[in-house]
Amino acid sequence: KIVDRIDGDADGYIATDELKAWIKRVQKRYVYENVAKVWVDYDLNKDNKISWDEYKQATYGYYLEEFEDATDQFSFKKMLPRDERRFKAADLNGDLAAEKEEFTAFLHPEEFEHMKDIVETLEDIDKNGDGHVDEDEYIGVKSERVLL
């Protein structure tokens, strides 16, 4: 059944371009389903927009003040400016309030052309600073995205 869905020209074979198109379609569906699922957690005032302040409060809340461990506090203080840069890049109209499409670009910058320059760098993923991304660091990045 899935082969029939992927095989656009119905020739009984899946060509590379058909497989690429299928993967892109499935990825795009996942992205929009993910945003729909988390939208209510971030739109705190229910105005159908997510402001930078709403996102910051929902994501970081009391963490910056409450963490006594310097390492945890450093990690959150490092993540906050990175998130703010990404939020502002996704906010095409500059009102610091993301509509669904803008918030989608914020959460999934790899899917949007105007966000290509803001996608995580090795520096963001390489938590132990050894110049390599090990399995735990990679899984950590994937977990962050799923949680968002």
TrEMBL record:
> Which Gene3D superfamilies does UniProt cross-reference here?
EF-hand
Question: Does Zinc appear among the keywords?
Answer: no
One Pfam family this sequence matches? EF-hand_7
Q: Superkingdom, according to UniProt?
A: Eukaryota
Which residue range or ranges hold the EF-hand domain? 1-29, 30-65, 113-148
Q: Which InterPro entries match?
A: EF-hand-dom_pair, EF_Hand_1_Ca_BS, EF_hand_dom
**UniProt keywords, alphabetically:** Calcium, Metal-binding
Similarity comment: Belongs to the CREC family.
> What is the protein name for this chain?
Calcineurin inhibitor
Organism, per UniProt? Xenoophorus captivus
Lineage, broadest ranks: Eukaryota, Metazoa, Chordata, Craniata, Vertebrata
